[in-house]
């Protein structure tokens, strides 16, 4: 009996060890992948992403190895996704908003300095060099140079241009025909005929070191260039040795005293809150921004009002017990909800076409007007609201129908006995009770339309343009489409940092709406509880 009881206990004791082994194997795999990704991130200049990845990996190891943190194991995947999909993008957006990152300022300062220092020039009056090529069995070349004074140099792709007496290599026997070595290490001297054969490859060969750059110009001539730009870290300036011009780092560029920029792209630098202040201080931008800001609120508010009003009106009609074929009418009313929104938006663009659209055709024939829906700012806004009402009312119809079903009929019977008119019953019973149930949904709809980029881009693409606007702000642009055009609209604006600053404004507004939604929901719960 004792032996029979010991066996299960021993098997149970081995399960924690087995669980630990599997846990260690899984963690080893996760750590290996994380280290590889971190190494790739560091190599690609994404140091912050690598640090965050390593910190998350370390946290996962602690959570899965410390038994007291066992409950966190179940929520750690969600926390990981929260950090990767929400926290890191937000932190990175805040960082970008504090820089001058744009289509003209995309590189790090070190990269710009490196690009400038890689530029060479041939000084005026420089002497041409004669050359002979040496080729290895692997197809590599060495160039032996001589200037008119007889000084000899060696052009080695691995080491640069080096004086012959300083070049550490093994020279073969001297050829009495030209007094040149027949070989250098495993590189064998090419004859003139062989040099012609490899002239294309030799002319494409560029041998560069920190001070000089060698190019083969023709069969009997080579040029030795000098480094054009030299950077001085002490003064944070770049000197053009060809012209003597000094370029100083200013505003993300290397700029001369006369305002001329060095021939290189700008670099990214932290500028603090300048992008946020630009919205207020720069009149050219503030006019467009506040116009977009005002229209964004107006568009979101009117979208909620029009869709809710139409959806509620149809819900009241379809909820009437005396209406025949209610099921058919309800089905027909929610058809716009079953069609993908982008298809419906494009169909409406065709319907509103000023030249060929059936709506304008009807108006021309019976009213004598031909509205220019997409070239007039006011009409474009009306078109946007019209299309959004068509797309949004079925949702309001469905939720309003559901809410109407929950209102007790006794309330209407009592109000009718008291002599209340239909409007009084609607305003004192139906609407207040509907708002209690639907207020969070209406606020959510407001937040959705506040960022309704798809509708704006498909119907008007933000147009028509705002007269006199410096930034690419159209008259129907909302904040999200405006920031998109700032960041990605080719030829009109690619100011990524300013777009990131506007995105933070949008985040703050939507966060405020969300907080208001939570507080309102809590108050309504207390009111109805």
Explain what you see.
This protein is an alpha+beta fold. It folds into 3 domains: 16-97, Up-down Bundle (Methane Monooxygenase Hydroxylase, Chain G, domain 1); 120-227, Periplasmic binding protein-like II (Beta Barrel), CATH 2.40.430; 279-528, Orthogonal Bundle (MetI-like fold), CATH 1.10.3720. The chain has 18 helices and 18 strands. It has a 6-stranded antiparallel β-sheet with strand order 6-5-4-3-10-9, with no helix packed on it. Strands 2-13-12-11 form a 4-stranded antiparallel β-sheet. The model is unreliable at 1-13 (pLDDT under 50).
Mean of all residue-level pLDDT scores: 86
CATH class of the largest domain: Mainly Alpha
- Under CATH, the topology of the largest domain can be stated as MetI-like fold
Q: How does the overall form come out from the CA principal axes? A: elongated
The structural domain count equals 3
Number of strands: 18
Helix/strand/pairing category: alpha+beta
Task: Assign a percent range to the helix content.
Answer: 55-70%
Summarize the structure.
The protein is built from 18 helices and 18 strands.
What key attributes describe this structure?
single chain, 529 residues, alpha+beta, Methane Monooxygenase Hydroxylase, Chain G, domain 1, Periplasmic binding protein-like II, MetI-like fold, 3 domains, six-stranded antiparallel beta sheet, four-stranded antiparallel beta sheet, 18 helices, 18 strands, 57% helix, disordered N terminus
């Amino acid at each position: 009996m004792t032996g029979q009881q010991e066996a299960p206990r021993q098997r149970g004791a081995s399960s924690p060890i087995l669980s630990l082994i599997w846990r260690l194997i899984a963690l080893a795999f996760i750590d290996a992948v994380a280290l590889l990704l971190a190494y790739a991130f560091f190599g690609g200049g994404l140091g912050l992403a690598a640090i965050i990845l390593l910190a998350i990996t370390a946290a996962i190891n602690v959570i899965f190895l410390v038994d007291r943190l066992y409950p966190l194991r179940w929520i750690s995947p969600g926390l990981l996704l929260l950090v990767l999909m929400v926290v890191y993008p937000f932190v990175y957006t805040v960082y970008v908003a504090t820089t001058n990152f744009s289509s003209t300022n995309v590189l790090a300062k070190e990269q710009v300095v490196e690009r400038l220092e890689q530029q060479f020039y041939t000084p005026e009056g420089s002497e041409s060099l004669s050359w002979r090529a040496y080729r290895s069995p692997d197809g590599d070349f060495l160039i032996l140079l001589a200037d008119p004074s007889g000084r000899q140099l060696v052009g080695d792709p691995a080491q640069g241009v080096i004086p012959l007496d300083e070049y550490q290599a093994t020279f073969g026997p001297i050829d009495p025909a030209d007094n040149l070595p027949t070989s250098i290490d495993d590189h064998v001297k090419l004859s003139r005929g062989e040099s012609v054969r490899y002239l294309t490859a030799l002319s494409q060969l560029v041998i560069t070191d920190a001070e000089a750059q060698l190019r083969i110009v023709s069969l009997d001539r080579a040029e030795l260039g000098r480094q054009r730009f030299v950077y001085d870290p002490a003064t944070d300036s770049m000197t053009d040795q060809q012209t003597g011009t000094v370029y100083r780092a200013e505003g993300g560029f290397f700029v001369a005293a006369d305002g001329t920029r060095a021939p290189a792209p700008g670099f990214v630098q932290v500028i603090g809150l300048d992008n946020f202040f630009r919205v207020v201080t720069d009149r050219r931008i503030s006019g467009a921004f506040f116009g977009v800001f005002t229209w964004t609120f107006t568009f979101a508010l009117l979208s909620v009002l029009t869709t809710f009003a139409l959806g509620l009106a149809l819900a009241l009609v379809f909820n009437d017990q005396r209406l025949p074929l209610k099921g058919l009418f309800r089905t027909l009313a929610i058809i716009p909800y079953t069609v993908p929104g982008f298809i419906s938006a494009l169909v409406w663009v065709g319907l509103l076409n000023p030249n060929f659209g059936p709506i304008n055709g009807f108006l021309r024939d019976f009213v004598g007007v031909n509205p220019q829906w997409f070239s007039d700012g006011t009409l474009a806004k009306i078109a946007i609201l019209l299309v959004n009402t068509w797309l949004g009312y079925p949702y309001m119809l469905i939720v309003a129908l559901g809410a109407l079903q929950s209102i007790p009929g006794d309330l209407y019977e009592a109000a009718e006995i008291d002599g209340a008119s239909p409007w009084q019953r609607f305003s004192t019973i139906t609407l207040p009770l509907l708002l209690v149930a639907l207020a969070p949904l209406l606020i959510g709809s407001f937040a959705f339309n506040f960022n309704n980029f798809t509708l704006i881009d498909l119907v008007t693409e933000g147009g028509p343009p705002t007269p006199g606007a410096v930034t690419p702000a159209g008259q129907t642009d909302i904040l999200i489409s405006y920031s998109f055009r700032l960041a990605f609209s080719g030829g009109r604006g690619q100011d990524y940092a300013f777009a990131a600053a506007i995105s933070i404004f949008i985040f703050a507004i939507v966060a405020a709406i969300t907080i208001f939604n939570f507080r309102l929901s809590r108050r309504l719960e207390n009111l109805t509880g």
